[in-house]
Structures are given as C-alpha cells and as structure tokens.
Design brief:
The complex is a heterodimer of chains A (338) and B (370). With 338 residues, chain A is an alpha/beta fold. Chain A has 14 helices and 14 strands. In chain A, α3 (57-70) runs antiparallel to α13. Chain B contains 16 helices and no strands. Classes of the chains: A alpha/beta (338), B mainly alpha (370).
C-alpha cells in the first residue's frame, strides 16, 4: 500500500511539475477565473451561506487573489476539498491555490512540494472547560478527564503538555467533533481539547456559549495559511502579496471604507505604493497598479475580514490574540511594501 | 405465515386475528404489551419532536427564523422540538445545490418529467407505452440540455450542481448506464471466447476488489494523468464514470447469478429449434435470468444510490454533503438531528420506492415454473 501510495504521489508530483511550466498566473488570466481549493465547510473559515455564497477568512484570501488578478473578487470558483484530497488536487493542477485551514509544516512544504505563501491564521491547540469549574489556567487541570479525538496530533500534544507539567489526566477518546461536543456537554469529560479555532466554533453552537471558556494556554503551533504548487514562484508571489496587502492595509489603517480617500489624500509613501498612486509596483507581479486597492475595496483589510467572519462580534467570538498585528501584541507581520 | 392474511375485513376477524397472533399465550401477551408501550413512547416522542412541538418557519413567538438563535428550542431549552427552518431556508441548496435561483425552473422541469421517462420502462401495461418509451430515449438528451444549458439557455457548469440534483443524477444515470453494460459483462464472463471472457473477469474482479471510495478517488486524481494536458474532464462526469463502472461490476455478478440458475436444457432446447446465440440469449435466457436476478439487482441499485454520498470526498456536494455544509455554517450549526433526519427521509423515500417496485415486479413475473 505504501509503495503504491508513494508511486501515486510521485506520478502526481511529476504531473504537477509538467503542468506548472505554463505559469499559473497566465493560465488563470486566460481562463478568466480563479479556481480555489476551499474547505468542505468550516464555520468562519470557509463555507457556503444560506444564499450559497462562500464566506470565511480562508475564502477571503481567494477573493483577494481574484480581486488582484481580475479586479473582481467574485471571479472565483470554489472547489470544496476534504483533508484527504487537498494536496493531490493542488499538485495535479485541479485548483490554482489552496486556502482551507492547512497547517504549514516542513513535510508539506518540502516533501509534498508545496509552497506556503504565508499565514492567515495562527492557530494552536487549546483547552475548553466549563466556567463553573473555576479554572483559569491549564496548569490547574491535574487529574482532569479530557475529551480528545483519537489518532490526531492533538493527542500527542496533550500527553506532552501534561507530562511536561507533571500532571496526570484521564483520556476520553472520541471520533469526531460532533461526538466530542456531545460528550463534553453531557459532562463525560472536564476538558475538551482541539485546535483553538475549532473550540471557539464548537462553543458558538452550544446552548449557552458563555458558560464555557477557552483557557489562555496554547500548547502547539498550527500556522494556517494558503499554499500553491512549489515550482511557480511568480504565482506564489501573487498569492503571497495579496495576503500581505491585506495585512499592510490594516497596519496603515486603510479599510474598504476609506480606500478611495486614501488614494486621493494619503501622504504616506508606503500607502501610495500599495494603492498604486506611485505606479510600477503592480507590474512586478504581472498585475495592474490598482491590484491592492481592488483587494481592499472589495475584500477589506485583514482586520475587516477577521472581524466579519470570526471576530468577537460574531458567534464564533475569537479575540485577535496571536493574530493581532505585531504592533498590537500579536505576531502578524508583513514584509515592507517597497 | 398465518393462513389468514386479510384480517382487516371485519372487526370480528380482526379480533380473531389478534387473539391468534398477539395474545395466544401469556408470554406472547406480555411481549405484545411491552412492544406496544415501546412503540407508543417512541412514536409520541418522535411525533412531538418532529411535528407538534417543532418550528417550521416561525418560532413560538411568531418570529421568522433566520438563524439558530431564533429556534424555539434555543430560546426555551427543553420546551420545544425540531427546528426545521434550516431546511426551509436552505431548501434551494438541498434540492439544487448552487444552481442559480433564477434557473431553478429548469431543474424542476427535469424533476417533473423524470417520472414520465421512467414510467414507460417500469410498467408494461401502460396505455400508449410506446410513446412513453420514445420519450424515455429522448429524455437523457432533453435533461442534459435543460440542466447544463446550450443554445437558448445559459450554461450552468456542473460545479454549481448539488444536493438532490447530484444524488439523483449520479444514482439514476449510473444505474441506467450500468444496466446494459452489466448484461454484456455477465454474458461475457460466461462466454466461450477466452479473450472476451478474461477481459470481463478481470474487469469485474478488479472493480469489485476495490472500494467505491478508491474508484472515485482514482477517477478524480488519476484520470487527468492519462489524458492529454489541458483536457480536464468534468468533476461530475468523472464521478459518474466511477459510479457506473462500480455499479456495472456488481450488477453483472447479480445477473450472472440469474444466468447460472437457468437449466442447460433451456439453451439446448432453444438451439435445437435453430435459434442462434443472440436469439437464444434475448428470447429465452435473459428474460428468465433477469427475473431471478431482480432482488440482487435492486439490492445493488439501492446500495449504489446510497453510496453516491461518498462523492463528497472528491468535492461534490450531494444531498448529504449539502447537509453537512449547512451544519458547518455558524448560523445553523448543531441542528444535526433536523438535517440528518431530513436527508435520511429523502434517501428512504427513494430506496423504499425501489424496493417496493422490485416486489411488484417479482409478483407480476411470478410464474408457476419458478
């Protein structure tokens, strides 16, 4: 089986190498729309809403790229991909890019031949407990029972964290998110642990979300970001700088509301470069000069996207935390636009 | 079986029947009572949940439900039942996927004419059957034109299809295409020609040897590798190819079972009358073999219809996939029971329909010699 898998993987890789020579940006431009690998449905990150329109912060990255390339954020075709097929779909050229809460790891970056172009959400494994337990830190959890999905990296992270802190726990194995929710709500375990974003999304669906807290400790690194095939750096740059443009726009205080005002009046040189007031920067990427202005006008800056889909005013209720700008105590940081 | 099979003719007869069958001994009586209590409890619970205490479009305050926080059960915990609003609000997606709303009439038209296309095939005593059969042969082309578009109609690419449309498309087309293929495979496997025979054996055994999910995955990922660069067959078409091949292999084995049950004397008798191979097969062997094979054929059809929900792994939203996507939306999350009950109800209607039809067919074709 493993041999066959490897064989398949290498065939697909070879194909990926062969097709990518065409230059994804040209292919996308000629086709007239962007094909974006998205989630099959994850609240706040990517799922179709009641009207059938895709929404979420991962979806916004796809929309940003479409806005940059075509000046129209709606020119995206979403291909919902499960975690099993996401990489093969990207490698075989089925999709132009992947933006579906995928953790950036060494193996995926190097062995699978992908290129992660940045991070649009810093996730990590967290713990959720009932508020009435009176716990405010994960270090007070000695002897607790933990609902945990079997066969995941979270299971190993949990064991590492508890043994590193000299604590013990009782593991309550569950198969799926839904099962974990049920077990946790029924009181079969004190703690529910998975990626923090997943905890927030779960909590949003509970009968009384305010009765549960996600503890501040994050015990693993899960940088989620968009990726492209690893042999087309021109295209990787387009996707990377589309994401960066959203982050820089937040730094510079440019929003979808004031972007036209900024174009007309901003004295800041970097803002002028970003918004195409100073010409020539778009051409480096093979795009028009107003590419970033289009992103901000149609999709918004990073903060707008975050607050709209997963921020504290949505049912998912995630604080910026690590995902705040470096100036605001987070680690979100885009290279300078010059 | 009790000889008295029609207990509903008079109250008296009903009483007799229940005395004989439900209360014949004290053990039987206790079992009957327990079963009745159980049925009553489960039945009332379910009906209360699903109908009497449920929300449909408005909650108990009379507000229109636009997200889960408006569901009565989320306002007064424990007082109310199902919140069917998720089905109503997302009805379009459940039925058509992402098909444009203003074009949905095209799908409705196809849904409406599907029974007319099937009826001629299913019932032979139908008046004007010949006309219906003509329509049946024309229907795939009409349906394709209506669904996909062409001259005069805007094109709706298959990635916009979803929900029941994808489930029915894969189920109906898969079964319809697999049927003739499977007959050829079954005959081929019993053929005396070594090359034909071995091709059929290898094909059937290979397809049966791998799970459908692998075939779907292969069709999705491997197929582009064998085609010239730039040719990207439609995602739905790939799934259809996989589903059809899978179904034809299984159906072929069901039909082979029927073929094996035909005594050799039948073939010899036909040959002695001077019929050639195709005449023998078409007029003598197949009618009998297919009749015997009805239960297993329908079995595989029902299995296939349900297996179509596996296409989610290759990025197609069938009925179940659309349901899951609805659940992943934060405005509706956690309404698991409503979505899964609705989806299973639809699957049940179709599968139960197939099963009843096969019973009808068996009864109709029943002759004394079998």
């Amino acid at each position: 089986m493993t041999i066959i898998k490897t064989l398949f993987a290498s065939m697909i890789l070879t194909l990926g190498l062969a097709t990518a020579n065409a230059g994804t940006l040209d292919v996308v431009k000629e086709r007239g729309n962007l094909i974006c690998g998205s989630n099959t449905g994850l609240a706040g990150f990517g799922n179709p809403n009641d009207a059938g329109v895709w929404e979420g912060i991962d979806v916004d990255v796809c929309r940003a790229v479409a806005a940059a390339v075509f000046g129209d954020a709606s020119k995206v075709e979403y291909v919902p991909l499960t975690s099993k097929v996401r990489f093969t779909s990207l490698q075989s050229g089925e999709v132009d890019m992947l933006s579906r809460n995928t953790t950036w790891t060494l193996q995926r970056d190097v062995e699978l031949g992908l290129e992660f172009v940045g991070v649009n959400y810093y996730d990590g494994q967290g713990f959720m407990v009932r508020k009435d337990l009176g716990v405010s830190s994960a270090t007070e959890l000695d002897g607790a029972s933990v609902c945990i999905q079997v066969g995941t990296t979270t299971e190993m992270n949990l064991a590492d964290y508890f043994s590193a802190n000299g604590m013990s726990y009782e593991s309550i194995p569950v198969e799926t998110n839904a099962e974990a929710d049920a077990a946790y709500l029924a009181g079969r375990c004190d703690i529910y642990t998975t990626d923090a974003s997943g905890l927030y999304a779960s909590r949003a669906g509970y009968p009384d979300p305010s009765a549960h807290i996600v503890l501040p400790e994050i015990v693993s690194k899960e940088p989620l970001g968009p990726s492209v095939r690893g042999n087309d750096s021109e295209w990787a740059d387009v996707v990377r700088w589309s994401l960066n443009a959203m982050i820089i726009a937040e730094e510079k205080g440019i929003t979808s509301g004031n972007v036209d005002d900024m174009i007309a009046n901003s004295p800041d040189p970097e803002t002028q470069r970003l918004l195409g007031v100073k010409a020539g920067y778009g051409a480096w990427l093979g795009l028009s000069d107003d590419w970033a202005a289009n992103i901000i006008r149609q999709v918004g800056n990073y903060s707008e996207s975050f607050e709209k889909h997963i921020g504290v005013n949505t049912p998912i209720n995630i604080a910026r935390g690590l995902n705040a700008l470096y100036k605001d105590g987070g680690i979100l940081y885009a290279p300078p636009f010059r | 079986m009790t000889p008295n099979t029609s207990p509903y003719l008079s109250p008296n007869k009903m009483l007799n029947w229940s005395k004989k069958n439900l209360f014949s001994s004290w053990v039987n009586t206790i079992m009957t009572v327990i079963a009745l209590i159980f049925l009553y409890e489960v039945g009332t619970f379910f009906l209360n949940w699903a109908i009497f205490k449920a929300d449909f479009i408005n909650n108990f305050r009379g507000e229109t439900i636009t997200d889960r926080t408006f569901c009565s059960k989320n306002i007064e915990v424990g007082q109310h039942g199902a919140c069917w609003a998720i089905i109503f609000v997302r009805f379009h997606q459940f039925m058509y996927g992402f098909y444009p709303v203003e074009e949905a009439w095209r799908v409705n038209l196809v849904y409406a004419f599907l029974p007319f296309a099937l009826i001629g095939v299913l019932f032979d005593k139908l008046p004007l059957r010949r006309v219906f059969l003509y329509f049946t042969f024309a229907f795939p082309f009409i349906a394709y034109f209506m669904l996909y578009g062409g001259p005069g109609l805007s094109v709706v690419a298959t990635n916009k299809w979803g929900g029941l449309l994808v489930t029915l498309f894969l189920g109906v087309t898969g079964i319809a295409l697999a049927f003739p293929l499977s007959i050829l495979l079954a005959l081929g496997r019993r053929s005396n020609m070594p090359i034909v025979k071995s091709i059929c054996v290898v094909f059937i055994e290979f397809i049966r040897g791998v799970p459908l999910i692998t075939l779907l995955f292969t069709a999705n990922v491997m197929l582009p590798l064998f085609l010239p660069e730039g040719v990207k067959p439609d995602n739905l078409l790939r799934a259809l190819v996989a589903v059809t091949l899978f179904q034809s292999a299984y159906m072929a084995e069901a039909i082979r079972g029927g073929l094996q049950a035909i005594p050799k004397g039948q073939i010899e008798a036909a040959q002695s009358l001077g019929l050639n191979y195709w005449q023998t097969t078409r007029k003598i062997i197949l009618p009998q073999a297919l009749k015997i094979a009805i239960p297993p054929i329908v079995n595989t059809c029902i299995g296939l219809f349900k297996d179509t929900s596996l296409v989610l792994i290759i990025g197609l939203f069938d009925l179940l996939g659309i349901g899951r996507a609805a659940l992943s939306d934060i405005t509706w999350t956690k309404l698991y029971y409503e979505v899964y009950v609705f989806v299973s109800l639809i699957f049940f209607i179709f599968c139960f329909g197939m099963s009843r039809y096969s019973l009808y067919l068996e009864k109709k074709l029943k002759t004394d010699n079998s």
